[in-house]
## 1
Amino acid sequence: MALPNLLRLIYRNVRVNTDPGSLIILVGLPAMYLIFFGFGFQSLAGGLGSGTYIDFLTPGIMSFQAVMAGTVGGSMLWADRRYGMLAQLLVGPFTRLQYLLGIMFTSVLFALGGAAVMMAMAFVLVQVSAVSAVGILVMFATITLGAIFFGSLMLLIAALVKSNNAYNSVQILVIFVVNFASTVFYPLSSSLPAALRYLFLINPLTYIADAVRGAYTGTLTATDGIQVAILAVETAVVLFLATRAYLRSDVSLE
Amino acid sequence: MSDSQTVIEAEQIKHAYTPGRYALNGLSFSVQRGEVFGLLGRNGAGKSTLIKVMTTLLRPSEGSLRILGLNPAREGRRIRSRIGVVQQSESFDFTSVEGNFDIYGVLWGLPAEERIRRRNDLIARFGLEDLRRRRSFDLSGGQKRRVQVAREFMHDMEILFLDEPTVGLDVIMRRTLLDSIRAEVRRGLTVVFTTHNLEEADYLCDRIAVVDQGRLLALETLENLKRLYGGRKTIDLTVSGPHDAAFYETLRARLGGESTVTVSGRSAVIMAADPKATLAVILALAQERGVGLDWLNVRQNTLEDVFLKSVGHEGESIGST
């Protein structure tokens, strides 16, 4: 039986983007963060409660998968534009919206897959205690939202930026700032300069990391719920902007 | 008037990428089912823009267009599910040649068994056996083109749009490709085909539209196009001497409106209604001006002459259907 259009596009995206090189970047890079930072900073990190630094870092790195998957989404659009497949798909039996949703769902799939790998690695490395079913549900729902947010953000950039170099530069900058100005690697501390603290607070990855950490350790609070709600609103806004920019741009003509 | 045999119907189609500058400027034509319709024109003539409009990638700024009886503005997806398009620019996924066929089959909803059958058949038919495991981006330009065209036959279609499909192909592969298209046409496929290669237009097309600066300069069957100049012959002429331009100006004036003179540097192509009289005028003028004749040749008209005649005289229509 023939698959519906959207599933066909997702199949194609997954197949094209799961070559060894892409997988190393997608999963290998966060895994290396987990191993090198996790064990490397173990001795330095104190004041994290009863857990070890790797316990703290694991949910952060799981959250980071949302950013990585988002960048894959943006790169998919960029590569399809550059190598002619976008125009080819758009003269096929697909709508522009289906194409966009195909990228978005693929990003979510990659984010959840990557997060699951990180979690499995953490279980192997430090034998963490089991996470509750509700906790897993919250973690994966938050990461899904995060993947849509960062996928939309990167699609927005890919739709607006006109050169490959510019796109790559912006992508590297976004990954760096979003990653290190968040609670992925360290908690939000009063010792941070005020400007940096504000950057932490407006960074959606902070909300994702806090909620995922809360679910991972079974310490979810009302603040986490509010942060996820804010993230949902931000995601809706960025998704709207990305869709509008993509549909308005004559990406197929390049 | 539209009927079931008319698969494309365009009325005064215009398209402007920037306001006021028309890439397509009032094109009207129709294409019949099972026809090979050639779009002939120079680079930048508007051929690719017209293909983009007909394949729903672009909306015409003005005019009306129906593809397979459907309105592209409202029923684009239905149209696209019934057409095939090979675009001028390359388009590949980052995988092997075989993988590209497979993925394309999945995208077009082919069941696995049928997908494999078609893939193997096309790979054999287009001589791609040696390349099937190679990555698409490692192929040469001609090989890529072959893969791209072959891949399009993975799915069924009623109209196939080919935007300069033979660019980069060697002579043998070009002929193989054109013959494959002919075979599909015999099974009822309609083909819209852009090219600036006159030989292949001559070989493949039932009707030819000559497009220049977004306008239709000629639209006729190949036979009619040639018949328009049937009584005429072409004279190729190259002169030597310091006053080439003045020589050709005078020659044009003496020949009058019956013959056309297309000048390029020291050479000219002259379409002559009365070749003997034209030769007499040329020889007399050369003697009078002391101009040497480096080359003088009289021959039958070719499609190339018709094309040069069409685009060489902006705005002059030599037939319409």
## 2
Amino acid sequence: MPDGTQTMIGQPALRIDGRAKLTGRARYASDEVVPNPAHAFLVTSSIARGRIRGFHLDQARAVPGVLDILTHENVGGEAEKPKPMAGGDTTSTLESDRVWHDGQIIAVVVADSFEAAREAAHKVRVDYEAERPSATFGSPGAEEEVRKAGEHKDYHVGDAEAAFAAAPFKVDARYGTPTQHHNPIELFTTTCVWNGSKLTVYEPSQFVYGLRGNLAQQLHIEPGDIHVISRYVGGAFGSRGGITARTAWIAIAARRLGRPVRLVPTRDQGFTIVTYRAETRHHIQLGATSDGRLTALRHEGWEVTSRPSQYNVSGTETTARVYACPNILTKVNIVHADRNTPGFMRAPPETPYMFPLEVAMDELAVALGMDPVELRRVNDTMRDPATGLEYSSRSLMECYDQAGARFGWKSRDPAPRSMRDGDWLVGWGCASAAYPANIGPAAVRVTLTPEGRARVQIAAHDIGTGAYTVLAITAAERLGLPIEHVTVELGGSELPAAGLAAGSSHTAGICNAVAKACEEIRQKLALAAVVTNDGALSGQDASALVLREGALRSPAGAKEDLRAALSRVTGGVLEVYAENIPQGLPRESIGKAYAGQMSMSRGHSRQDATTYTFGAQFVEVRVHSRTGEVRVPRAVGAFAAGTIVNPLTAHSQCIGGMIWGIGAALHEATEIDPNAARYVNDNLSEYLIPVNADVPQVEAILVPERDDRVNPLGIKGLGEIGIVGMNAAVCNAVWHATGRRIRELPIRIEDLL
Amino acid sequence: MDIRLTVNGTEHALSVDVRTTLLDALRERLELTGTKKGCDLGQCGACTVLMDGRRVLACFTLAVAAEGAAITTIEGLAGDDEPLHPMQQAFLENDAYQCGYCTPGQIMSAIACVQEGYAETDEQIREYMSGNLCRCAAYPKIVAAIRQARPLLENR
Amino acid sequence: MRPFDYEPAGGTEAALAASARHAAPDAPPPQYLAGGTNLLDLMKIGVMHPPALINIGALRGAHGGIEADASGLRLGALAHMAEAAEHPAILSDYPAIAQSLQQAANQQLRNMATLAGNVLQRTRCNYFRDPSWDACNKRRPGSGCAAKEGVNRLLAVLGVSEACIASYPGDFANVLAAFGAEVGLASPEGGSRRIPFEDLHRLPGDTPQIETNLRPGELITDFHVPAGPWTGRSLYLKVRDRASFAFAVASAVVALDLAGGTVREARIGLGGLAAKPWRSHEAEAALRGRRLDESTAQEAAEAAFAGAVTHGENDFKPELGRRTLVRALLEAAEMEV
């Protein structure tokens, strides 16, 4: 890439989709207007395990306006189960009479109005053959097995058992994290419209091609006959990555009626018809020398999943490589219960697994009488301890230093209960954050006009991350245009394929693809300009020419305006289609993206280097000395994520993740009835997510970092990193405030009385 | 039932099921989809609109009971070719949103918050904006936006 | 939600008449619609199926005022929570009332919900609120109580019965109970009556489905809070998981008439802990005539929770309740009045 073009990437830019969102004009999938829709309402199971003996539908059918009721009895054979992106098999819904979990879709009522559909759905009566369900860890009937290697790896370096036994300083403790639900504010809606054999699906999605490909397979139709539209997404956080069961049934309902069908599920149904973050348990053993060097790390995890699924997140793939340690042993177990199949939720592996590691590190620092930051410094490494590969870049301690300075960590008295403000105990805690720098394949079409307007078309997803804007920034910079002259079309399966918007991979994947397309444009224009006999750039070195300020320019200042440059290669607009296949992925990965299959180069699985984003997080908590409420008046995080395309939206992502972490540490837990294996607090008034009053001051520092190895633009990604260290930082701060080490989340009043 | 709703200064005649909420009437009947459904149970604030100048939840308002009231939704703040309302502009400049789905409710609530006189301090803003959940957690930036827009609204 | 007759009422008489007209044996009673924030909620989730809604919004003129005089405070039943929360007389002379309202729900809901509607809000027990649970004696008398062995962290420890451990979720009503308020009622049979606020709600006993002593069609017109030397030194302390927009895990109303450091009279209420809006006469008695300090506050708290019954997840609540009350008492004693 010629120098002198790096002017817009890295500069804060307002969202180009801002006006649409701020005026209510942005059409989220739930907002799309279709002609004369019928309305669907789901009936979900009230038992967690058993079979359906029969339905009583007469009362429901008698509701005026009811058009159809779908059950396994009339449509069971019309669709196959959706295929999850991980974990193999999953639970069924209307395919059969089997009930796998509470809240499983067992019928779909369709009516002329939402009101009639809801009334009728409430009148559906079901006879069950109920069996005693297993709710979670320790429930009778839950089945535990060792997770087999395959999707995830275990690490066995040196002899961790012997090293732990011999270590002069040790931590040996067990930890737990709760069930959590994404709860994006846009509900899990689906609208299906058939036009002959063509199906249009409006559904909020993090992977429109995935939705298309999977739905085609379920319905036995051609992927090309399905058009998925998801222009704006009202929050996702992993919940809209894989296809869920509802989509096919709504498509079938619409086909049966010959009329568009719109489903707006309720908030509580959203707890069981999509995925969630499963609860986890952990056993950590750390051994260290008296100067704090780790000699042994053992991390064993347990995760809940559904009966048929092998889904697990195996965050040991990250915890094994955060610190230098010569002896590492990891293991993951899965526990099958009568639950819906879990799935990705913000930093799926790292949020639950970094919590125990980073609390254990704090406990080790206490045992050693060492400052927790210094303990991290002693164990910092530029080489991945699990594989011996180099980190492509790693600025963990720079993050600690910058965030620590901003936070004022130096003035911390290490003794617990040493700070107080009236009746409030004050504590400070910190933790590391780490997340692999992932990247997926992507295709894009970029069009440039003689008037200096560009259009970027890519089936990317803006789930609030600012994808619209980073795409525009990248194209504007590489084509030498003002950002206002770039339009972006995304969120539809009519566009060139991009992968799943998840795992902090999206910005890297889509911006590198745009850069590649723009480079092809530059090359075409440059080559044409230098070989001609009559232009200002005739005879110049094509590789040195750049597009800047609406012209093709040489380093010496010669230039040719866009119109002239374009006219040498086209009579109209120049359109370039490019595919970007990241290092480490096979050529066919782009085909997989078109087919709707996930393929991602992961930061811990590359052969050339280990690529990770790191961060450091500091938290102040206040705990009321009598009544035990925990509040977080301030938090500071610093993150080094390579190239930051748009610092404005990146900053928003980071503080958003940090606030998620505060919620996860103190509030968020889906409560499960132990006997019925049913979610109980399945609403936003008791599944508590942070409100404005919970977060007085949250600061994020973006630490400059250059990484030339991770991918051509040097983007490591930061959607997930913000949450990763927060659970532990809050927990460590609560220890500092109170002297109590709480090893199960969330930390609540009753833990601190 | 036949009703008339006055939304953003325009009167609409429509026939609704007695059970239809103002929220569903706006979204499904009037195609004013800027007002969002996030829970339909008064727990998220995404459906906040102004009724006779006061912020209320459209999900807990029956359409039939909204007759006679002046309803303002997000679409009523700035027309297609008009400059943004100062609160919208402040949200834009402060990046006080991410996915944008709760944003119309946040903005309607924020305007009311200033008009109620509960935007005098950051602490007050945080408390009086706590009825609008933002899962992306743009909260600190929402506070900054309201702080920025307040004098402009007070002088309007 | 099932279809219902909708009838806007132009005045009190019309509302009462409409209620009588829509009442039918063997059918759920018609409901008055004011703010709708709990009624529409329960209708949407299929818990309530009233055959008729009588919109009483137009009665605000008659029953929406707030007045304070030497005898006390008269609160119109249809005053919005937000209005009462910021009323100057309430802020200055009855701070516990203002605080209980300010800390309830959120501003949108407070703009909609009326005082009477707020007082009548029903439990948040999720086994009650989700009709797909078979066992709920409050919703289906005789069906049992799934909450006792289930998720009951937010449920009651005071005033509970074998049949029901649902908690009363509100804030404001606990202050009315503690302050010895009176409720004004208008009846479809004509006439009106006044009852002590403490008698408005019932304990669950064997009939948790009957939550109040309201007679069919009776309409709350107002609340009267008697003046007393304790109302100025009063506060509402709400302990909750989240900093705002959350139900109380525990709360305490404290109002003190202090002479030097000695308690001449105390009014004490508890929230988030009991089956109904709760006044602790036991705690009041324990303090009367005594010096208020850490140890007498602790004694009062012990007295308040002497009869507490817990069910596993909520085992911590008597202790949290005691601590909340002690904290509230000591903070009230420190108030500048």
## 3
Amino acid sequence: MSNWFLEYANVGITLVIESIEAKALVLPALAGLNLTPCERPQGIAITVNGHHQKWQLIDPESDINQTLTKDGDLLYHLTDRIVYHVANKTEGCHCLHAAAVATNQGAAAIIPAESGAGKSSFTAWLVAHGFHYITDELVLINDATKLVGIARPIQIKTRGLLAIKPLLRENETIIFGDFANAVTVSALGGQFATQNQSLGAIVFPNYSKGAEFLFKQITSADAGMRLMSNHVNARNLEGHGFKGIMETVRNNPCYSLEYGGFDTLPPDFAETFANTVNGRC
Amino acid sequence: MDTKKIYRHAPDCLPEDMDGEILVYSPSMATTLHLNGPSSIVWGLCTGEHSVADIIEAVTEVYPDQATQVREDIIEVVEGLANKGFLILTSTPSD
């Protein structure tokens, strides 16, 4: 058994990994979470045990005891527990249901969207095109617009796999699950962003089959409404963090992206996106 | 609706001007509203000093050809904001 500690915004979580097989799967996949070994569990303890085809995930604080048969599902549900606890307990900054990537000039794009809008797939595309990975699920941002993210493996639903596979490096694979499939940053030939990036732009994506490409700046009122709907720890903050979120929107360009698949993105879109994000730094 | 009623902003509401458009957040309702056009006018006038009738009269002066529609729109907006908890009734003054 080994204990691995991680902390975001003063929320400490220990992964208690009880089997060699679990350690072999979990530690490499969660390399982006800056896990550090510790002697005893600190903070919230989440236990992982078992082996391929029969994993056990226990989160006593949430009264969860799951048996999972696919590696991808273990990684999904384990990181989902981490995201939940961080969002549930964070008080010192805003938690946004959003992906995020950074340019090689250190500017970050926040990519908020509801589940199913394609933010994880779009994030995978960005990482494969040279952007540095911050998160595909939870962004933590303070009022000075410095941000970090839960850098879990990018979670792709089965319906999105066909589009992702061409982005993978040769001989790299996906960690499959029934609920979601884990795509590591290394499989995309990408790299993790350093922590505490500066915000450069906010982009709200929406994938819809058959949709034409449209990338346009939106009003701050429109962006404010959208961003508040993705603000997941509002109740932990004074005034539900409303003023801070509005200030963030006012001070950063906000865009919407409509697209019907990666083949609808212009050939130079990665460059356009980078220039958009870098424009504020 | 009794247009003699006077409404004011719910005390916990947080308005923000976003480049000329108003967003208002209610922590108690955990809801954000986007006010523009008639709703932003109504919000601006619901200070606890003007009745609904006063507001209708003021807006009708600006749009005299649309008096009926103005009345309907303003009543609808006030009722909507009140039902969502963003406006509270201050008083119904007697004649």
